[in-house]
Every structure is written in structure tokens, then in C-alpha cells.
């Protein structure tokens, strides 16, 4: 090993980590403008579109606040044209308990706020010459957040099932995600909501990427490289060994030299990819009893939601 290192020449320190970032207002604004532009093409009603955006923001703000409470880094809210909105963030050590609370922090407040507006809201129009009322906003909040609890990936209910009950890895998790993609694709084709095909395509791309990452992780394990570190604690030599593995296996890096005396123009991307393998570990801190209790709560929420959705379906059919 010492001879190999000598042949590679001097070794620079690992590439500095990119400082953690919080929500970038310009990113949120640009994604919001794109969402409005795309949304107005489908729903040419400015007031209804603003109400929908408010409901989505209320939902995602719950996820964002929970992530910030549990010290997630790189937290960002952004809107996805035609589909909705989402929050992203990163943390090296995750737990089932924290994950469940973060996932439920989106749909639960909106679900109960919708229920409250239905009980207390008026049917009088908010704006003259427009049909939308407080009660209709309640219906919309109740339904959108209720649907989000359904166990279909990547809805919140699907993410809850995948992380807390399936552990995010293994054959059962992969089978569930593939089944969700097929279901979403079938719904998109049956109802001619072709924009929904973006979801299974995106999930399939992520699954393909995860397969590559699993292969890389298996090589890391075979070589006995310790990756139980925060990036700032990762030894310099381990960084360069992980970098070599990425160059061997990752299509985006295979033209990069393995010399260790110079940083490549893609070094920040390499650093970010290496950091990915150091960040994720899931702590199983929910007992079977607590998981059963969580499942019962989840089932009760779905039980409350399904009759309302069926009622509206019959009303507008």
C-alpha cells in the first residue's frame, strides 16, 4: 500500500466541505414563479391558484420547521411545476422517531386545519363574483393533506411506510417503490393526467442511482474503509481512497485522473458525493408497540379521510 501511495505522488488534504446552507429565498421565488406559470396553464383562476399555493406552503412549512428543529442542514423549500412542492434537507444520523414526526408535520396540521375550516367556515364567497369560500378552502386542505397520507411513494404516507416500517433498504422497500411507480403511472394514464408521469420517472431515476450507490458502498465495505465519520472528521487518505472508488465506478467521474497532488474542476461534486456516503444512518428507536400505535393513528386518519373523498367523488361524478 505504501508503494502504491508513493507512485501516486504527494497527497493534498481532502477537498474542503461546502458550508451548510439554509433556504435560499431566490430558489424558492424562482420555483414559485415557475409553478404559477405552469399552474395557470392548467387552472386559469388566479384566486384558486393562490389558495392552492398557500395550502402547499402551509404543508411544506410544517416539514421545514420540523427539519430545522432536528438540526437538518441544507434545508430548502421549492415548488415543482404541475406537481406541488417539497422540502429537502440532510442529516448524517436519522432516527425513525424523528423521521416519523418530520413526515407527519406536513399533512397533519393541514389535515386538522382543513377539518376546522369545514366545521367553522362559511359558504359565503370570499371575493365577490367568485365561488370560493372558507369552507371550500377547508375541503381542499382536508383532501390534499388526507391524500398525502395514503401509503404510496413518494407521498408522505409512502415515505412513512418506507422509512419506518420497511427501513428504506432491501427487497421489500424496492418492491414497494416499484409498485408505487406502477400505480402512479396507471393513474396518470387512466385519467389522462400525463404530468403525473414525472413522478414514476423521477423515482425510477432515483432507484437507478441508488443501485449504483449500493454497488459503490459494497466496494467500500470490501476494501474495509471506515466511513463512520462526519465529513470534517474523515481522514485525508480515506477521502482519496473513496475518490478512487468513485472514479472506477461512477460514470460522471471516470475520466478524472487519480493523481492526488491536484484538485479537479469537478472536485466539489466529488466531495459532495463522498459526503453522501457518510451522512446516512438510520437509528431504529421506535419499539414495536410505538410502531403499532403510529400505524393505528395513521389508519384512523385514513378512515376519516376516505368517506369525504368518496362523497366528493359521487358529488362531482
Q: Would you write up a description of this structure?
A:
The chain has 12 helices and 4 strands; from the N terminus they run H-H-H-E-E-E-H-H-H-H-H-H-H-H-E-H. It is elongated and about 75 Å long. Strand 1 and strand 2 (84-90) form a beta hairpin. The strands form 2 sheets. The chain has a two-stranded antiparallel ribbon. It has a two-stranded parallel sheet with strand order 3-4. The protein has 317 residues and is mainly alpha-helical.
Supply database-style keywords.
7% strand, 317 residues, mainly alpha, two-stranded parallel ribbon, 12 helices, 62% helix
Gist?
This protein has 317 residues and is mainly α. It is 62% helix and 7% strand.
Topology:
Layout: H1 2-8, H2 25-42, H3 46-69, E1 73-80, E2 84-90, E3 93-95, H4 96-104, H5 107-120, H6 134-147, H7 156-165, H8 171-190, H9 198-222, H10 236-249, H11 267-279, E4 281-283, H12 288-316
Parallel strand pairs: 3-4
Antiparallel strand pairs: 1-2
Helix pairs in contact: 3-4, 3-5, 3-6, 4-7, 5-6, 6-12, 8-9, 9-10
The N- and C-terminal alpha carbons lie at a distance of: 71 Å
The low-confidence runs, each spanning 5 or more residues with pLDDT under 50, are: none
Briefly note the structural class of the backbone.
mainly alpha
User: How much is the average pLDDT?
Assistant: 84
Q: Report the sheet-strand fraction.
A: 5-15%
Q: In sequence order, what are the helices and strands, one letter per element? A: HHHEEEHHHHHHHHEH
Count of DSSP strands: 4
| Largest sheet properties | 2 strands, antiparallel
The coarse silhouette is elongated
The tally of helices reads 12
- Main sheet strand line-up: 1-2
Question: Measured on Cα atoms, how large is the radius of gyration?
Answer: 23 Å
Percent helix: 55-70%
Amino acid at each position: 500500500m505504501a508503494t502504491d501511495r508513493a507512485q501516486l505522488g504527494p497527497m493534498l488534504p481532502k477537498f474542503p466541505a461546502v458550508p451548510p446552507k439554509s433556504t435560499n429565498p431566490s430558489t424558492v421565488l424562482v420555483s414559485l414563479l415557475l409553478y404559477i406559470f405552469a399552474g395557470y396553464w392548467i387552472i386559469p383562476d388566479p384566486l384558486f391558484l393562490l389558495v392552492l399555493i398557500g395550502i402547499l406552503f402551509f404543508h411544506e412549512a410544517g416539514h421545514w420547521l420540523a427539519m430545522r428543529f432536528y438540526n437538518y442542514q441544507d434545508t430548502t423549500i421549492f415548488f415543482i411545476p404541475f406537481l406541488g412542492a417539497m422540502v429537502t434537507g440532510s442529516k448524517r444520523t436519522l432516527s425513525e422517531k424523528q423521521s416519523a414526526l418530520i413526515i407527519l408535520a406536513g399533512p397533519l396540521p393541514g389535515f386538522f386545519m382543513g377539518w376546522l375550516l369545514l366545521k367553522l367556515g362559511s359558504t359565503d364567497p370570499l371575493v365577490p363574483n367568485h365561488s370560493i369560500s372558507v369552507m371550500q378552502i377547508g375541503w381542499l386542505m382536508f383532501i390534499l393533506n388526507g391524500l398525502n397520507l395514503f401509503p404510496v411513494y413518494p407521498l408522505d404516507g409512502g415515505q412513512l411506510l418506507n422509512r419506518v416500517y420497511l427501513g428504506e433498504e432491501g427487497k421489500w422497500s424496492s418492491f414497494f417503490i416499484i409498485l408505487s411507480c406502477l400505480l402512479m403511472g396507471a393513474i396518470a394514464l387512466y385519467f389522462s393526467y400525463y404530468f403525473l408521469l414525472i413522478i414514476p420517472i423521477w423515482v425510477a431515476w432515483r432507484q437507478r442511482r441508488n443501485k449504483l450507490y449500493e454497488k459503490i458502498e459494497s466496494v467500500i465495505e470490501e476494501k474495509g474503509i471506515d466511513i463512520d465519520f462526519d465529513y470534517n472528521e474523515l481522514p485525508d487518505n480515506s477521502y482519496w481512497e473513496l475518490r478512487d472508488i468513485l472514479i472506477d465506478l461512477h460514470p460522471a467521474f471516470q475520466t478524472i485522473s487519480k493523481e492526488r497532488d491536484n484538485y479537479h474542476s469537478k472536485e466539489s461534486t466529488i466531495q459532495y458525493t463522498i459526503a453522501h456516503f457518510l451522512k446516512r444512518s438510520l437509528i431504529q428507536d421506535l419499539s414495536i408497540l410505538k410502531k403499532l400505535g403510529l400505524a393505528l393513528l395513521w389508519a384512523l386518519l385514513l378512515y376519516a379521510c376516505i368517506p369525504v373523498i368518496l362523497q366528493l367523488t359521487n358529488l362531482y361524478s
